[in-house]
């Protein structure tokens, strides 16, 4: 594998130093207590040698014991020092975290505001966890590396004081091994950096795939996405293995620097003792320094501590990227970088937002006349009478005085049998068990073949109602039935505001809801919704749309989705602001096509023209819902008049005649 170039670690260390700036007082206390803590390491070999030479080997065991008691006292002092170190260590580590977070947040925000850098959520949370990593490592280093370094120095000092000859025998291999290890540490650090980079890439690749799951499935790119993540995971594994291999060199270092001195001392001891250069007690004391302090310290230094040190360098060098001033360009591969590349990661989402909900039922029912429910309306919880637009408590009321209107001939399936009425009863819906209901006890009948526009202020619940009518949402209470049976996503087609076009041919997209679509039917649908020019520009029905989000505008995607639903055998179509990206002429043409199409049409309106084209208008505005024709509601509902006043009606829009004579009714 290739290892990432080692970032310059000095800025990282500078960042660390600056962030530790306010910790001088606690650092001084740590230094003082460290001296006490190192006392046993400094004195142990010397005390032991004295206990042997002047006590036990000289036939004075009580003297020997007295020296050992002194050693015990030094160990007790060390225990006290360790206890006393807790507070100043915490006073260094905790503020460090706060300071680093402050710098990272300031740097990230500054980068976003002044330099337009990406500030993805994953990047920010990654930085936060890196700050925590730095805090943890600094804490661990202070708890382990600091006493080890102090011990190492104290033991070497004690050995030198005890026996300069033995200090040389031990010191040479120890120094050599430490130097070799410091050189190796650089390679280990570089490999650790590669591990961090690989882990970041893996996290980004995984998050990207998870976020784009829906698109990936729609595009049939599961394999490609899996390959992408697998390749990144393999790189991460390679990086970890390479780091482990590089770290393994610590074994010979410890053998050379720790065990070899013991062997050398034992080999040299007889001659040195014989010549009187050292005493037997000094040899034992020297061995104590090496086995009791030097070897464990070397072991820890080259293992755990070196790992923590290189990790600290890597993490701080990554943090430096996030705290860089705003005029420093965001480095490639740096924290917070927006991933790029091929495959699903680089594939922009294509107008996600809810696909068509499906189709159902065989086409049935003849044409013919349908009579509306005119006259006075009454219902449980209230009554309505008079000049239109009166409302019952929990029901949508048709205006009194509504006249039966004869449907134009040839309206086909829209004058379907009464068995296909869309019936809403006591409909209540809330988005959560404790949430305020968006809809409360609504009752409404949309007769088969009707054309209903739903209007109301933003956020009032129009899309929620659309989802409930289409069976995409389940009511909290009440029922929505079509032809007497509960609606389900397979029976009603819903076109949401953000139309979904998947990568594939135009034919596949338009014919998606038609079992065995024939070309003529698809062409009719394309023409009806006004997508002929678009399909021609794309290259015909068999043209491939590789990148719907990149090649189609929002309006063009809406045209494709509209053609798809138009071609479907759905008996009820719900358009939820499905033409909002079309210009007014295109919207009028598309709505007219659906109005002429057999079946029931419910349109969530965002323009007055949509309401004008509909047979009936349902106003929901947070109070009682109101139902009537546009003209009736203008008179009877101040809320509707006010809403209509905000909408500009183009000339001629009001001339569109109702398509059916059946009223939406209160039942
Ligand atoms: N998934 C959801 N979870 C929780 N609350 C939601 C959810 N979807 C919508 N809402 C809330 O329900 C209410 C009705 O939303 P809905 O989208 O149905 O309104 P709308 O009339 O269609 O609005 P608009 O005209 O802006 O599209 C709003 O207050 C909205 O914030």
TrEMBL record:
Transmembrane residue ranges: 30-52, 64-81, 152-185, 253-273, 285-309
Record flagged with keyword Mitochondrion: no
SUPFAM superfamilies: ABC transporter transmembrane region, P-loop containing nucleoside triphosphate hydrolases
Keywords: ATP-binding, Membrane, Nucleotide-binding, Transmembrane, Transmembrane helix
Membrane topology label: Multi-pass membrane protein
Gly residues: bias regions: 381-390
Residue stretches making up the ABC transmembrane type-1 domain: 30-302
Ranges of residues in domain ABC transporter: 422-647
Subcellular location: Cell membrane
InterPro entries: AAA+_ATPase (IPR003593), ABC1_TM_dom (IPR011527), ABC1_TM_sf (IPR036640), ABC_transporter-like_ATP-bd (IPR003439), ABC_transporter-like_CS (IPR017871), P-loop_NTPase (IPR027417), Type_1_exporter (IPR039421)
Region feature Disordered, mapped onto this chain: 328-354, 381-412
GO molecular function term, any single one: ATP binding
Signal peptide start and end residues: none
PANTHER family, A to Z: ATP-BINDING CASSETTE SUB-FAMILY B, ATP-BINDING CASSETTE SUB-FAMILY B MEMBER 6
Protein name, entry field: ABC transporter ATP-binding protein
Annotated organism of origin: Streptomyces althioticus subsp. attaecolombicae
Species lineage: Bacteria, Bacillati, Actinomycetota, Actinomycetes, Kitasatosporales
């Amino acid at each position: 594998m290739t290892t990432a170039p080692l970032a310059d670690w000095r800025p990282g260390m500078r960042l660390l130093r600056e962030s530790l700036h306010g910790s001088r007082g606690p650092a001084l206390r740590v230094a003082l207590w460290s001296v006490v803590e190192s006392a046993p390491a400094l004195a142990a070999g010397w005390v032991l040698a004295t206990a042997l030479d002047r006590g036990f080997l000289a036939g004075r065991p009580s003297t020997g014991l007295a020296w050992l008691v002194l050693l015990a006292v030094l160990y007790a002092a060390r225990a006290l020092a360790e206890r006393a170190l807790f507070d100043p260590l915490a006073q260094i580590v905790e503020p460090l975290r706060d300071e680093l977070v402050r710098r990272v947040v300031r740097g990230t925000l500054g980068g976003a505001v002044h330099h337009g850098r990406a500030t993805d959520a994953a990047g920010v949370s990654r930085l936060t966890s890196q700050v925590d990593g730095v805090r943890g490592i600094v804490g661990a280093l202070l708890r382990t590396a600091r006493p080890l370094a102090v011990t190492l120095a104290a033991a070497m000092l004690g050995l030198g004081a005890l026996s300069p000859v033995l200090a040389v025998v031990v010191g040479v291999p120890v120094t050599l091994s430490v130097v070799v290890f410091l050189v190796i540490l650089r390679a280990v650090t570089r490999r650790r950096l590669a591990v961090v980079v690989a882990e970041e890439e893996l996290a980004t690749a995984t998050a990207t795939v998870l976020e784009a799951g829906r698109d990936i499935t729609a595009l049939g790119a599961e394999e490609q996405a899996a390959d992408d993540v697998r390749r990144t995971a393999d790189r991460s594994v390679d990086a970890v293995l390479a780091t482990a291999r590089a770290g393994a060199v610590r074994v010979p270092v410890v053998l050379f620097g720790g065990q070899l001195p013991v062997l050398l001392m034992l080999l040299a001891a007889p001659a040195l003792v014989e010549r009187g250069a050292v005493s037997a007690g000094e040899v034992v004391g020297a061995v104590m320094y090496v086995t009791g302090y030097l070897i464990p310290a070397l072991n820890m230094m080259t293992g755990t501590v070196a790992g923590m040190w290189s990790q600290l360098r890597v993490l701080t060098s990554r943090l430096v990227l996030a705290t860089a001033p705003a005029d420093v360009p965001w480095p490639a591969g740096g924290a917070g970088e927006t991933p790029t590349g091929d495959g699903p990661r680089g594939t922009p989402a294509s107008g996600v937002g809810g696909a068509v909900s499906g189709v159902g039922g065989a086409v049935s029912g003849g044409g013919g006349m349908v009579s509306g429910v005119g006259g006075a309306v009454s219902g449980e919880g209230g009554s309505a009478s008079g000049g239109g637009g009166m409302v019952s408590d929990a029901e949508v009321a048709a205006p009194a005085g509504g006249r039966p209107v004869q449907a134009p001939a040839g309206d086909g399936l829209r004058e379907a049998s009464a068995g296909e009425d869309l019936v809403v009863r006591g409909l209540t819906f809330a988005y959560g068990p404790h949430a305020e209901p968006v809809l409360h006890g609504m009752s409404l009948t949309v007769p088969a073949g009707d054309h209903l526009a739903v209007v109301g202020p933003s956020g009032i619940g129009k899309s929620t109602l659309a989802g409930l009518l289409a069976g995409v949402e389940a009511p909290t209470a009440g029922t929505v039935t079509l032809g007497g049976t509960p609606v389900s996503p397979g029976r009603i087609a819903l076109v949401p505001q953000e139309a979904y076009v998947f990568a594939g041919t135009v034919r596949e997209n338009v014919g998606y809801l038609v079992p065995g679509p024939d070309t003529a039917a698809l062409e009719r649908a394309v023409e009806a919704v006004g997508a002929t020019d678009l399909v021609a520009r794309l290259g015909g029905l068999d043209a491939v749309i590789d990148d719907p989000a990149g090649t189609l505008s929002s309006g063009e995607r809406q045209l494709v989705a509209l053609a798809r639903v138009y071609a479907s055998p759905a008996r009820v179509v719900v358009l939820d602001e499905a033409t909002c990206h079309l210009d007014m002429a295109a919207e009028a043409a598309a709505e007219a096509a659906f109005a002429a199409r057999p079946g029931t049409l419910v349109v969530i309106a965002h323009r007055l023209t949509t309401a004008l084209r509909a047979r009936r208008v349902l106003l929901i505005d947070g109070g009682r819902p109101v139902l009537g024709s546009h003209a009736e509601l203008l008179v009877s509902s101040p809320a509707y008049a006010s809403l209509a006043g905000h909408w500009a009606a183009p000339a001629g829009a009001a001339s569109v005649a109702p398509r059916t004579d059946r009223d939406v009714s209160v039942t």
